[in-house]
């Protein structure tokens, strides 16, 4: 993974575990996968060997002596477990800065540490359900699709942060078709799969049981899958979600498109809780994130597991390299 600029890692909420897992990632990766953190040097755990840099290009060499940090001043100290309202705008500014550096070519990818959406909404005027939607807005309104990826499984929820009762109304043929197409393109461009295989889950139990348990599968999900297969896409479904995620079933597809948040996230968090990575497909830049939250309850205690952050940085660099080489096209 040499020859590309380093990965830009955002600090996330400095009162969460972002500073700790960034430090853990540097200890595990060193200069093998070059990255730098954008944040306030004062927010890292006491005794952190910091290598403050002025420019992202300095990160690979700086990593030999410490965690490379591109300074971004915040008004207040970090208080582990206690979010500081005054720091909320800075969290948003850091995300913007990481995207700008990546789009300018100074960084190869964005890897975001966890944020508190409520803190940002309450104290920074953050009007987005999460990172994915904000990044899509920064990309000029691109349709972004959230994938959760691990060695065992890749899943894509067609609807994300909405109440379960709102899913049937939000899930339209146009939305599902777009999600499937973006997923297929992402598997080619970002994962280097020339002929990706996609499994599509049903909305209802047993994929509707022939209409007995729901009509969406017969009325439009099934016909949509048939139309995509007629185009030459390797799309299987709609499939009963309760039989899609055992090992034998997973071997038959490269990604599963699911109908709602928990249908997708429960299986991957069961199989790879500490190793799952959030990947945003459909953006003009690479973005990954650990598949967990701020963990305010354990912040500052030195017990946060950096495994998902390590996996997220590795995957960001790998996807950037795949894109640079032309992907699987």
Please give a structural write-up.
Helix 2 links the parallel strand 3 and strand 4. The mean pLDDT is 95. The protein has eleven helices and twelve strands. It is of the alpha/beta class. A twelve-stranded mixed beta sheet has the order 3-4-2-1-5-12-11-6-7-10-8-9, with helices on both faces. Helix 1 crosses helix 11. The protein has two domains: 191 residues, Isopropylmalate Dehydrogenase, CATH 3.40.718; 120 residues, Isopropylmalate Dehydrogenase, CATH 3.40.718.10. Helices cover 35% and strands 16% of the residues.
SSE string, helices as H and strands as E: EHEEHEHEHHEEHHEHEHEHEEH
Percent helix: 25-40%
Largest sheet: 12 strands, mixed
Instruction: Return Rg in Å.
Output: 20 Å
> CATH top level of the largest domain?
Alpha Beta
Query: What is the β-strand count?
Result: 12
Percent of sequence in beta strands: 15-25%
Assign the CATH superfamily of the largest domain.
Isopropylmalate Dehydrogenase
- CATH fold annotation of the largest domain: Isopropylmalate Dehydrogenase
Helix-and-strand structural type: alpha/beta
CATH structural architecture of the largest domain = 3-Layer(aba) Sandwich
State mean pLDDT (0 to 100 scale).
Answer: 95
């Amino acid at each position: 993974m040499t020859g590309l600029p380093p990965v830009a890692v955002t600090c996330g909420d400095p009162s969460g575990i972002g500073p700790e897992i960034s430090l853990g990632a540097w200890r595990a990766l060193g200069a093998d996968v070059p990255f730098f953190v954008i944040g306030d040097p004062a927010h890292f755990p006491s005794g952190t060997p910091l290598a403050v840099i002025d420019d992202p290009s300095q990160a690979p060499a700086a990593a030999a002596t410490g965690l490379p940090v591109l300074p971004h001043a915040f008004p207040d100290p970090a208080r582990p477990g206690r979010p500081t309202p005054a720091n909320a705008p800075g969290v948003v500014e850091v995300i913007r800065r990481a995207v700008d550096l990546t789009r300018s070519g100074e960084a190869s990818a964005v890897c975001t540490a966890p944020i508190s959406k409520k803190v940002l909404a309450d104290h920074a005027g953050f009007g987005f359900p999460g990172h994915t939607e904000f990044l899509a807005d920064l990309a000029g309104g691109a349709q972004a699709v959230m994938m959760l990826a691990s060695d065992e499984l890749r899943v894509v929820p067609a609807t994300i942060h909405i109440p379960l009762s709102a899913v049937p109304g939000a899930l339209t043929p146009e939305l599902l078709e777009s999600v499937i197409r973006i997923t297929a393109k992402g598997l080619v461009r970002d994962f280097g799969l020339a002929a990706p295989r996609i499994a599509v889950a049903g909305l209802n139990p047993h994929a509707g049981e022939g209409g007995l348990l729901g009509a969406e599968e017969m009325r439009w999900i099934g016909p949509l899958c048939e139309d995509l297969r007629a185009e030459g896409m390797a799309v299987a479904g709609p499939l009963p979600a309760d039989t899609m995620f055992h090992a034998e079933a997973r071997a038959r597809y490269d990604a599963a498109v699911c109908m709602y948040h928990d249908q997708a996230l429960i299986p991957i968090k069961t199989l790879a809780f500490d190793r799952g990575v959030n990947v945003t497909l459909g953006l003009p830049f690479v973005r990954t994130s650990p598949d967990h939250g701020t963990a305010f309850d354990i912040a500052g205690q030195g017990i946060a597991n950096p495994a998902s952050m390590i996996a997220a940085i590795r995957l960001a660099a790998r996807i950037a390299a795949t894109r640079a080489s032309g992907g699987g096209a």
